[in-house]
Amino acid sequence: MTTSDDAQTVKKAPAKDPWELPDVSGLVVGVLGGTGDQGRGLAYRLAKAGQRVIIGSRAAERAQAAAGELGLGVEGADNAECARRSDIVIVAVPWDGHAKTLEGLREELAGKLVVDCVNPLGFDKQGAYALKPEEGSAAEQAAALLPDSRVTAAFHHLSAVLLQDPEIDAIDTDVMVLGEARADTDVVQALAGRIPGMRGVFAGRLRNAHQVESLVANLISVNRRYKAHAGLRVTDV
Predict the structure, then answer these.
(1) Regarding the domain delimited by 24-226, which CATH topology (the fold level of the hierarchy) does it fall under?
(2) A GO molecular-function term, please (predicted)?
(3) 28, 107, 115, 127: which sits with the fewest CB atoms below 10 Å from its CB?
(4) Model pLDDT, residue 8
(5) Domain residue spans of the chain
(6) Do residues 204 and 116 touch, judged by C-beta distance below 8 A?
């Protein structure tokens, strides 16, 4: 039995350092939609940082061709094989194919850490604008379609142009990371931090993903007006 005197001597465990992140260097990263600009750029940057990367596509031949162009040990496979062989799977497919792609890979993605970076956007004569899926966001749609996966959201605000430019050594930006479990978001933050210039920042649970995805429409407007490739920085953290 603990007395009041004993209680005064009990020390609370120190709070975990929010920037203490796991070593993810040995994990295999799959990129679904890795033949598109965003997916190809992420695959290139992660492979350049020393990560083992597999590009996924509906057609294995197309993925293998893209992987061969990137070099750096990147492999190519069809989406199902990519999902099976990867520890972390980044979803970088077009929004109009998002649901169908994930529905078809539910079994292969079971137990996997899934990182959704899809931005539901529409375009008209006035420019880009955000769409709101029935589930609330692309990430929440992914979570609903993949009940046996650990779904997070990240890598939304990155310029595909900068990602693919071999002349650029570092990309000056923060990566907003959302998810339900801290262990999962820590892994994604650490993965983002593998890319020079990037930092992963926890930004809330998946219910907050819609505004993060939607902000891309604003960044597109910024980039068009200023002829830039703008990203984001979170200050005072």
Answers:
(1) Rossmann fold (3.40.50)
(2) coenzyme F420 binding
(3) 107
(4) 54
(5) 24-226
(6) no
